[in-house]
Amino acid sequence: MAKSKFEYVRQFEAHDECLPHCWIVVRIDGKGFHRFSEMHNFVKPNDDRSLSLMNVSAEKVMTDFRDIVLAYGQSDEYSFVFRKSTTNYNRRASKLMTNLVSLFASTFVYNWTKHFPDTQLKYPPAFDARVVLYPSNRILRDYLSWRQVDCHINNMYNTCFWKLIQDAGMTTTEAQHRLKGTLSGDKNELLFSEFGVNYNNLPEIYRKGTLLVRSSVQETATKTVPNKNGDGTMEETFQRKRYITETLYTDIVGDKFWREHPEILG
Ligand code: ATP
Ligand code: ATP
Ligand code: MG
Ligand code: MG
Ligand code: MG
Ligand code: MG
Ligand code: MG
């Protein structure tokens, strides 16, 4: 196509290709979900409908972006890890990030009624996104550990906080005051002695968040091919690899998971 005299304006576009050989992480996070969760009557501290809607939205993202090797989600956030050598969108940060976050948000809305059949969506939710590059496996693992430890700390706090409000009848201010300065052991003890709750028996999805990993399964498929005589067709079976997304609620801070899945970090 002929170039117009206006073409030069393209030169003003920023080049934002991600550094080679680095893990590309896109983290998205719900905008103002504190309010969003109240407006849509989320069960506190953990609404299963929202968690499953977040998870199906992340699965859709993983299905469409084949170079994502792993995703980790908790609360209103999800981190997506692209393989180090991806050439998706020529590694352009803004392209990767905006395509990913808009697909996530639209899938979240698209599937809303399936997960919240009795709750009308009151306004369109938004998600922010950022791209972070990690130059080594160790630092990528530390990033994921950081998110999972955050999940653990918040969940423990929120579990105590909402028990004090829902079961002990405290106001939010009283509950905050009661928890001020408490350590993890104190919170465990509070849950056990005052509410008979063993924190370690709470569902793993609350305590550890959700991990999506791509794994391959070998399967037998059939295809139609010309028959030996060349006068018709026949069915032939063949082996193929099919990629599936596996959902895990497991510890990713320690070495065990990584030892069992050496293929992820390559
Ligand atoms: P920001 O726009 O800065 O992210 P935010 O209100 O979304 O603001 P976050 O730190 O992201 O703040 O926290 C998300 C909040 O959304 C949680 O604190 C919690 O109140 C709520 N939330 C998210 N997921 C759930 C869930 N599954 N069940 C109950 N509440 C949830
Ligand atoms: P990419 O993902 O690279 O943007 P694309 O298929 O969206 O791929 P564009 O260059 O953005 O390519 O072009 C958008 C195309 O969408 C148009 O070429 C046209 O075929 C179609 N399209 C968009 N808006 C309309 C419209 N209002 N009516 C009919 N067709 C439309
Ligand atoms: Mg925030
Ligand atoms: Mg948020
Ligand atoms: Mg958040
Ligand atoms: Mg285009
Ligand atoms: Mg287009």
From TrEMBL:
Keywords for this protein: GTP-binding, Magnesium, Metal-binding, Nucleotide-binding, Nucleotidyltransferase, Transferase, tRNA processing
Record-level GO BP terms: tRNA modification
Cofactor(s) recorded in Swiss-Prot or TrEMBL: Mg(2+)
Enzyme class, UniProt record, top EC level: transferase
Entry's Gene Ontology molecular function annotations: GTP binding; magnesium ion binding; tRNA guanylyltransferase activity
Annotated binding of GTP, by residue: D29, G30, K31, G32, F33, H34, S75, D76
Reactions listed under catalytic activity: a 5'-end ribonucleotide-tRNA(His) + GTP + ATP + H2O = a 5'-end phospho-guanosine-ribonucleotide-tRNA(His) + AMP + 2 diphosphate + H(+)
Cofactor note: Binds 2 magnesium ions per subunit.
Entry-linked Pfam families: Thg1 (PF04446), Thg1C (PF14413)
Thg1 C-terminal domain sequence ranges: 139-253
Full protein name: tRNA(His) guanylyltransferase
The organism of origin for this protein: Ridgeia piscesae (Tubeworm)
